[in-house]
Specification:
180 residues, mainly alpha, transmembrane
């Protein structure tokens, strides 16, 4: 499929997904998005899709493409969750800015690896470790009470680290398939 066709499909899929809250707003007061919300979500969805389309074209097997998809989904969910409710405290808590380090590690690692499968695996594993480190760095800086909320944050970060690790595992598998 050509890049133009892929980008057109991506734009249509993004518009289709944005129709869900638009239609829901017509039937319930529970969904109340502003124009800004639609713009931000459109940029997030299209950006994640664009990252997937461009990165997946660098690989030549299914494991590579799936690894790219998992990484794009992890990044999208990480940004969306932080913008919507925040992972540490609420969305206004400055500790949530530390999650930018996770995305930076993944992106810079991918660029340094020149999108080669083994390097991508290492970048995703590094993003997983960074994800695990974020709540501990935040706790060291801001010294919150250790309670159920902190355990929830650690559990949530562990889940996200697992998603990054799955992406790394898929890229590693793609690397081994390319060598065989």
């Amino acid at each position: 499929m050509t890049l133009t066709k892929s980008l057109t499909r991506l734009a249509l899929a993004t518009a289709g997904l944005l129709l869900i809250p638009l239609v829901a707003m017509q039937f319930t007061k529970e969904v109340n998005w502003s124009l800004f919300d639609f713009i931000v979500m459109g940029v997030l969805l299209y950006g994640a899709g664009l990252a997937y389309v461009l990165v997946s074209r660098m690989g030549n097997n299914g494991a590579y493409r799936l690894g790219a998809g998992v990484a794009a989904a992890a990044g999208l969910l990480l940004i969306w969750g932080n913008l919507a409710v925040g992972f540490i405290g609420n969305e206004d808590n400055p500790a949530n800015l530390l999650y930018g380090a996770v995305l930076t590690v993944a992106a810079v690692g991918a660029l340094v690896a020149r999108f080669r499968a083994l390097g991508m695996a290492r970048a995703m594993f590094a993003a997983a470790l960074t994800q695990v480190a974020v709540p501990f760095v935040a706790a060291f800086i801001w010294r919150p009470e250790i309670d159920r909320g902190m355990l929830y944050i650690i559990a949530l970060n562990t889940i996200f680290a697992g998603i990054w690790a799955v992406s790394g595992w898929l890229f590693r598998r793609a690397s081994r398939a390319a060598q065989a």
